[in-house]
Write a structure and sequence with these properties.
two-stranded antiparallel ribbon; 73% helix
């Protein structure tokens, strides 16, 4: 009984460490993406919204819902709260959709050596979030159609721009900084990163079983919840909203503060997890 309780505590500690590591790395990649300049061609912006491959690689390697949740939480903590730019209830739209998208990516991979599975997982992981977000934004446009009808063709133009923006994001963030790095890093990190954190690598599943129906239902529920949250926020009902004015005082260089904090948290967490793994190994040898 005591051994079982101790093992449960150890597993919880590992999960917490993994969550914090994924959260800090996700916050870091979002912040770095923010300082990379964007290019604009007419109304179309060409830029990197995030280095999505980092949470994708982590969620595929560990296949853990907490890793999926850590990605949007990391963005909120390091890229929003510390910078004083928390948008309130609307931020949770991305939390819901991105968590579900990443979780789907992790569940879609059964063999990390399969390039086909990795490609599909990365495309679905990013595509689910981006497509759902785009459809929600288009829905907001059509909800306000009466106001927009004053300008002929404006609603259609906005919908077209949303569609173009989705395609651009899908190519740049989803494929170039999503699929391609995921294909490179997952096979190389599999079996190496997990033991360093004291976690057993995920087992390869040769079965061809489809996604459980519960996961599919969860994806549908996530879209419904994300849509609900987005429209409630659009109506001006914001439970929590915070915008600090210290950015005007410190300027754009203040972004290096959360970058440094996120990097420091990631390094410390990795060291603690690695030390915990060493202590666990010694304890098992003594036992």
């Amino acid at each position: 009984m005591a051994n079982s309780l101790t093992q449960t505590q150890v597993n919880q500690s590992k999960t917490l460490m993994l969550f914090i590591l994924a959260m800090s790395l996700s916050g870091l990649e979002n912040l770095v993406a923010e300082i990379i300049p964007e290019f604009q061609i007419g109304p179309i912006e060409l830029g990197i919204s995030s280095f999505i491959f980092i949470p994708l690689v982590l969620v595929i390697l560990f296949d853990n819902i907490w890793v999926a949740l850590a990605a949007p939480i990391g963005e909120i903590v390091f890229a929003d709260l510390i910078l004083g730019e928390f948008g309130g209830l609307g931020e949770f739209e991305e939390v819901i959709l991105l968590t579900m998208g990443l979780y789907l990516a992790g569940r879609l991979v059964k063999d990390v050596a399969s390039r086909k599975q990795l490609i599909i997982a990365a495309l679905v992981g990013f595509g689910f979030t981006e497509l759902a977000g785009t459809m929600i934004d288009i829905g907001k446009v059509w909800i306000g159609i009466e106001q927009l009808e004053a300008v002929p063709g404006l609603p259609e133009s906005i919908v077209a721009l949303e569609g173009i923006d989705f395609l651009v994001e899908f190519v740049i963030t989803g494929i170039i900084f999503g699929v391609l790095p995921t294909l490179y890093f997952v096979p190389r990190l599999y079996g190496k990163l997990e033991p360093m954190l004291g976690i057993k690598p995920r087992e390869i599943d040769d079965s061809r079983n489809p996604l459980p129906i519960a996961v599919t239902i969860g994806a549908v529920i996530a879209v419904i919840l994300g849509t609900t949250v987005a429209f409630i926020s659009e109506m001006g009902i914001n439970i929590i909203e915070w915008e600090a004015d210290f950015l005007d005082k410190f300027g754009d260089n203040f972004i290096w503060v959360p970058i440094g904090i996120a990097a420091l948290v990631a390094v410390i967490t990795f060291i603690l997890a690695k030390n915990g793994k060493t202590k666990e190994a010694k304890a098992s040898q003594e036992g």
